[in-house]
Amino acid sequence: MSAAEAEEYEAILKIVRVWPPARRIILIQAVLQTLAQSEATPGRLPTLDRALGLLATDRPAPSDADIATWLEERSSRAIDGEPDGRVRRARSPQGTGPHDRHSG
After folding, report:
1. Inter-residue contact 78 to 86 (CB < 8 Å)
2. Contact 16, 24 (CB under 8 A)
3. How far is 25 from 33, CA to CA, in rounded Å?
4. What is the pTM of this model?
5. In this predicted model, what pLDDT tens digit does every residue of 4-55 receive, in sequence order?
6. How far apart are CA 91 and CA 84, in angstroms?
């Protein structure tokens, strides 16, 4: 604690010491609530660190063209009825749905 912080701390104590006990208890409760709130926030950080770790790789990020190719391949598999472990979209009866191929 720096000298300025120690001085501020003592000034606060000097003010609070003259308060009635009920008012001091209310202050204590308010301070404890701020601690409880600050304790809850860091609990999310390890999860974020783990998630970022799962995303970490020594390879460069895929290009937009790579991702477009992957999405097109996946869409083709779904349209052709190949199992990919995911729910497949149904083709429209007339073959005019947004995922149906058109020759052109």
Report:
1. yes
2. yes
3. 12
4. 0.35
5. 999 999 999 999 999 999 999 999 999 888 887 766 555 556 777 777 777 7
6. 16
